[in-house]
Write a structure and sequence with these properties.
eight-stranded parallel sheet, 16 strands
Length: 383
Amino acid sequence: MFDDKIFILDGATGTELIRAGMPRGVTPELWVLEHPEVLLKIQQSYIEAGSDVLYAPTFGANAMQMKRHGYDGDIRRLNYDLAALTRSCNPRCMAGSIGSCGGIMRPAGDLSYDDLYEIFLPQIQGLMDAGVDYFAIETMMDLKEARAVGMIIKSVCDIPFTATFSVDAGGRTVYGTSLAIAMLTMSDAGAAAVGLNCSTGPENMAEFVREAAGYADIPMIIKPNAGLPKTDEHNNVYFDMSPEDFAAAMAPLPQYGVTMVGGCCGTDNRHIKALAKAMSSTEANPGKADNSDVVTSESETAVYCGGATPLPADGDMPDKIYESPYVDENVLLIKIIDEASLDYLEELLAICRKPMCFICAAELEDKVRKVYTGKTKIVISDQ
């Protein structure tokens, strides 16, 4: 879907709403419904600047986040109404923005895949009702959450989804996930494009894109801030990268497989106009890497062509991974015996960073994929 041209995304929504008068500390999704003219002016300015895609203002409009803000209304209707505002601008393409629920998935936290299904399904349905062209899972820090949201989308519709992550100065999320690992995992989960947003400025993101380019088998997305955040004498955060410098830093990225470019915090219609001009004659060059034998955990990659010693998923598993032959293998081959094995697998994931592949019965395959985070291989066996 995103491999035949360079797609110009929109710029910031949150910082532009604040600049236009939205008070700090309010719930943006609710404030926008009370002041739709402010959003429409911002989004229309992006279309005039050259944006192919507008993001609906639904970033935090999932059940958990809205409950946290005291909202007890209809989540499905809320998302429909918000996306309908964006649709009224007649964009060439509308993305349904989906951000984190703010909770933590097991084993680090207490949320399961089924919990996330209840949290995100009404949001997904509302965006479907509004006719989004694709879902933009964005500003994610937890690969497991992003992957789960992608799986939920695929379970209810055929609308494409993309995923972008927020990383630190070293190019990894708080859980240690690099762009390459995120791309491998989310591509395996069915994403149409994967990349980075927010986090930092375009120069830093360019470094992470170059590092990941060798693994690119789907288009990449880059939506950086207008440079690194700064604070004034009143402790207010601001961004000061000029539109010209922003566009110049973004211009080389398509050669590494980036086909979707836009802006995040601190960018406005001027940045998007400069970006559209810089990309006007650039051709898409999506990656075509063969990752068929690459598997990942949340923070590591490995090549697996078979031959590992099966490790039964039972109560002894956490001790056995430090014994021969398992301690010397770069990929663990876990044998899932029954549903109880999935609990043991979650315990192992809390202490083991190695990529894993699995042997299980056909009826357990889907459950294994809901528990394990990375790109994996599963051998179906009833033995």
